[in-house]
Amino acid sequence: MNIEFFGAAGEVTGSCHILSVNNHRILLDCGMIQGGRKAEARNRDPFPFDASAIDAVVLSHAHIDHSGRLPLLVRRGFSGPIWTHRASQALCHILLEDSARLGENDTERKNRKRVRQGKEPLQPMYTSADAAAALRLTRGLRYREPEEIVPGVTVTFKDAGHILGSCVVEIKATEKNETRTIVFSGDLGQYDTPILCDPEALTHADVVLMESTYGGRQHRDREQTIAELGQIIKHAKETGGNIMIPAFAVGRSQELLYLFGRHYDEWQMDDWKIYLDSPMAIEASEIYWDHPHLYDDEATKLRKGVRDMPPLKNLTLSKSADDSRRINRHKGGAIILAGSGMCSGGRILHHLKHNLWRKQNHVVFVGYQAKGSLGRRLVEKRPYVRIHGDNIKVAAHVHTVGGLSAHGDELDLARWYSSFKPSPPVYLVHGEKRSARKLKEKFSDEFGARVTLTDPGMKLDLITNKLTSRGVPL
Ligand code: ZN
């Protein structure tokens, strides 16, 4: 019985690990590597295992850095079940189909150029048909509903509070009369996050595989963050402009709409026209809407008074490109939520092009902006930016609102871990080395925990607790 660490060992994206029990191989996540062209080229590399020899996949949540290579896994021979939460199953339909389409479009664009240069056309990493095949293999479970996925291995999902349907995975594995409880944290959310429940407390584990994205860091106070957002909206009313909010389709968009509803009177939202300008965010919102049993108490209470989507009376769901273009007629009084979250593509680009050069307008960033993205250049307050080949003057106010992260910070991670009694050994995944080291320090000091930073190729024997790396003892 052992675990091998592959993806998201020593980095943040590309989550993927293998649990072997009784000669059955179970993949925990099959995520896409993200963050620039060079890193992303690794997605096409052969898997460090035989895809057709995997018996089952357990998927912690729908985010692409956890699910994005499932279609490729299927293309390369995997045909077993993909176990995940029912809500993740629904969200995967949007995210994997979109991922396939993006890949196909990208390849098509490159091929137009290559043909002119007399070069061989490229193939997309995977197609919409591969995504559809992967989706057909998904099996949805509820939280706290144990399922024996291969003989001797039972999986139970607990709420991770990160996005809708996100799971902490509890695995009970038995081999030759020895049973081990392995807990895989997936991505953990913040406590008191809007809409979702808090990460669920577990009390026993023999081994914990834990994310460490925000090791060594603390988020800004949530209530303060929300108050700041309200201030920006009031200020924008005074300047008479539009507000553009680049937001990710799953999670952040729904959270913002929820906050608009919760503070509707206080923020005088009646003065605004609100646009959700993203077919993907609209679909994701519908899935959030259809899973009210997964809400926390406050969201449940708020939801009770509202019958239909959209929940805000001044909210317009802009599905078509024409709907999106029509938003341009507003010179002020519009709040526009559109993707992509880092302004690296999508409809937000044409809104920025129309609005950035006028000083009464506002751009509000509510999520992380990676190096090299247009979002990052705006956050850095560059005087001019390039959009669709045009140089655009940045006269609008640019705000960065921290504290709305879907990931728990160091205090949240410690709070979640503290419910295990006694403190089990921890293997840190899903974090840059620096964050993981900080978290290791904290857990050693605070809980006396034995913490190990993982690297790709590390293998943990779950019976003897011996650790090896490519066959060499550590
Ligand atoms: Zn995630």
**Spatial strand order of the main sheet:** 6-5-4-3-2-1-22-23-24
Bound molecules: zinc ion
Assembly annotation: single chain
Number of strands: 24
**Major pleated sheet:** 9 strands, mixed
Approximate helicity band: 25-40%
Number of helices: 14
Measure the end-to-end span: 18 Å
- C-alpha geometry: globular
Strand content: 15-25%
Average pLDDT works out at 94
Radius of gyration: 23 Å
Low-confidence stretches: none
**Class from secondary-structure proportions:** alpha/beta
Highlighted features:
9-stranded mixed β-sheet; binds zinc ion; 474 residues
Q: Outline of this structure?
A:
The chain is α/β, with parallel strands linked by helices and 474 residues long.
Outline the structure in words.
It is a single chain. By secondary structure, the protein is α/β, with parallel strands linked by helices. It is built from 14 helices and 24 strands. The chain has helices spanning about 35-40, 65, 70-75, 85-115, 130-135, 220-240, 250-260, 280-290, 295-305, 320-325, 350-355, 375-380, 410-415, 435-445; strands at about 1-5, 15-20, 25-30, 55-60, 80-85, 140, 145-150, 155-160, 165-175, 180-185, 205-210, 245, 275, 315, 335-340, 360-365, 385, 390-395, 395-400, 425-430, 450-455, 460, 465-470, 470-474. Strands 6-5-4-3-2-1-22-23-24 form a 9-stranded mixed beta sheet. Strands 7-8-9-10-11-20-21 form a 7-stranded mixed beta sheet, with helices on one face. β22 and β23 form a beta hairpin. α4 runs antiparallel to α5 and α4 (about 85-115) runs antiparallel to α8 (about 280-290). It is globular, with a radius of gyration of 23 Å. The mean pLDDT is about 95. Bound molecules: zinc ion. Zinc ion binds near residues 63, 162 and 187. The site of zinc ion has 4 residues, from loops.
